[in-house]
Amino acid sequence: MIDSESSPIIGRVIGTEKQPNSAYSFYFWSYAGADAPRIGIGTLVKIKSAEATVYGSVVEAYGYLNIDSPMTAFLSSGGNLNQPMATERPEIRLYEGAVLRRDPEEPIGAVPMGEVFLADEKDVQVALRTESYKDKRGIMAGLYGSEGNYVPVHFDADFLLGPEAGHLNITGTSGLATKTSYLLFLLSCIFRDFKDPDEKGVAAILFNTKGADLMYIDLPPDEEISPTDQAMYEALGMEPRPMEKVRYFAPEKYSTGELNTLRQVEGGAPVEKFNFTLLDMMNHLDLLVGKEDLDPKADGYLRYLADHFVHDEDYPIHTRDERSDSRIRAKTLDNLIDIVRQHRSWCDEHDGKDYNGNHAATISKIYRRLQMLEHRFKGLIANNETASGPFAESFQFQQNTVYVIDISGLNSQEQELAFAAAVLKLQARMEEQNLGVNRLIIAVDELNKYAPSGSGDSAVLRSLKDIAARGRYMGLVLFGAQQFRSRVDKEVVGNSATHAFGHIEIDELSQPGYGYFSASIKEKLATLERGTLLVKHPHFAQPIFLRFPKPFTMKGGDGMRKHRKQAISPLEAFKKEITRFGHLPKRAELVDAFAALASNDQPKVLIDIRKATTEGEVWRLLEKHRAGMTLVSSALTEGVVTEVESLFEP
Amino acid sequence: MVIVPGNRLRERLANVPFIRVPVPKENDSQEAARVPPEAKPNIDAPLVEADCSEFRTFSIQPATQSGFDSFLDGTERVRTAFYVGLLPAMIAATGAAICKRVGSKFDLEPVSYKSRTLLISPRHEEVVRALHGGPWELEAVEAKAETGALEFETLARKHIQRVREGLEVALGLDYDTGNLLVDGGIGNLIQRPRRNSVVGIVKSHGRLLVGSPDRLEILFNLKHGERTTLLKRESDPKQGAEAYTCYLKLNDKANEGPFYGLVRIEVPADQESVERIDEIASWILAERFPMALPERRADRLIYPISLVEQVLRSREPNLLEILL
Q1: I need a surface site. Which of A467, A534, B158, B277 has the fewest CB within 10 A?
Q2: Burial (CB count <10 Å: 0-12, 13-18, 19+), residue B314
């Protein structure tokens, strides 16, 4: 452990006319060579002078020889690279630092010319101001320093989980063990460290959007823990353990009634069903029918349906001119389709007359769209008035429990709908303070999908903005992650008080949102190793680099391999899907059959088709992957082959 | 040196009559304009190499590694401080240092260092009283009524130069380990027996030790890596004891003057020096890289010597601060 009281001077502050120190930045020099002090980007230092003690973080490093130009170096060696040099030119290392804190705090003057030391544990706590809240509200955030010199760093619970500030935003390139790993690590720390005076505690709901990333977090990993991770766990005072309390939820497959999940574990935590009521879904009409189909007339009609047949008490089917005693209320999607069918019939019977101001063509259009929903979203909508899982009115969250919502088997549009409905539902219930916990963390990856920048308006964006702005007062905390922060709505990102940055591609780092990072910080972010993050927190005047151990949980891929059910070939899976129809599949059915195939062994065409969001896109993909159609064709009856092939006729 | 209020020269002289303190300009050259050596005619110095009866050249291969491990140099920086009547008082920062090199690693912390800050003023009682006890060594010099400003300045500069040389000699005499390379002559360092080797490298050639046309021609045509026959430099009050010496062409360029890269090596006047002169010359040639660029005299200046100069400059008191 470093002890700055007894450690040597590692530098001296220097200010020149060209590079003066300011109140917030400073320069110090040190020497180079094998015995040089271990100073790098992100190193925390302490400056001692008679005027003040200043704490800072190194943000830039320079090296100089005593020459004025590269030409001097060239000439002074005779232009010969192999020329032996009797004397090495003295090399200076110059570092630029950013001020974290100064003591005394006032006056905020230029950084004094003082001696520079490596920060020890106490210095780190003072520099980051963690000493003021560590014991009462501290939540372990990670480790500063390197092995043998680790210093635990804490977040302030009031600023991470509310009410003073809240939310966490994590940016990192996918697949580099940053976002999910840090999320799981931090949740373990929150569950361990969060002290709730009301004792209701905190729970987390995690959306598993791709692969089986979060589907085996209650199981230990296959491989042994590395000595590096072991050392980190020891420094953190934590036992390497999988998540202790986890519940898994997945929607049903509309066709088979099986749960659409990638978790296949015999014994252990079971996967439970989740869905929403039709009422929950009616807030997301744009997602239900597709934005491209939601013209003002269609929107008007859908709102009419929602107001009169879903939200409201039972409402008669009649026009202003006709009275009827036939009252109906849509409790399920089938009910709603039936109501629209009746409206369409009414129009047909009345020579195409408008139905209560809704054009007959609009009603027909919505009828067709809703019919398609039967297959697309049916697994998400309860077939009675009661939702299942954590989005049911009566569901009570338990503290220190993770709720994993597996939506990885859904297509993009379904995922968006599920997330939107969940967020809105949780927000409404949290406002009523009947979730069972004092704080609920909603964690979701690919935030750019749900809160994209510059995308106009949507219910989920409105909801996320609202949570970002007000959630901390309600106890609803958003832990969002994304690969491209620049593509996430500024309000959602901006209201996040704590930010973590893992490895980020240089293209993304060139976006304006990263402008306040020095060139070296950006370079470091672009090459950041696994298990290291740059962290911003309201108490930290400057972002700092922290390390964290690999979560002691089973990787999704390992879980899938280890617990996979008897595998069936994609061909057999497809056959199974097709034969369930019992008739020649319609185009929509064919599309859904493709989409329902959720296996990592699918051929490329099936994987791509699952990602498609419109029917047109599906057919374009099918055409693109004609080779994949061989497989498809062999699975179909002769009649189906003929029909499928006819679809590709010019 | 920390300049505290009250140690500034202007404040001290504020109420002294007959004094003018010009505002110092930052861009004034602080580099010492050393007093040029006295002009003396060239001479043919005696040859001392036993097997060599004529003045000629020897081709020397640079050593793979220089044997010098210590380097001695001195610096002086002079400014006009104020005027007593029409005569200038000069302030100077002088220093000397020996720095060591281990392998190729030059240690910027001198093993030996001395410095003095001098204030040389025409004698004036009130000035002496006002300047007493400042961060300088005041030397009040009696000036005759007819002494001109330039004459007084030259006197002051010569004195400063002597002080600087004195510092160098004091350090050099006390230093008795390793192979010491000195910037300049070694006459004053070998007046008594030494326990270590000392070699001087002279860059300026006010008086050549070759005078006859045939020797001058040989010197004129000296090629890079060649030395001349070893000569004897006689003792004199300024340069000290007699020493053996030879010319060495450290660098050469066709489009430069005849003195480009020409240095004169001084070694103690003994048989050992005669035997070792090729080795010593080869060490100096090994010091050719890196060149002391961007120094103006890089063709003749040995890089470690330039580093000693930089070390000294970095330790000089800020004269401007005293004068402001």
Answers
A1: B158
A2: exposed
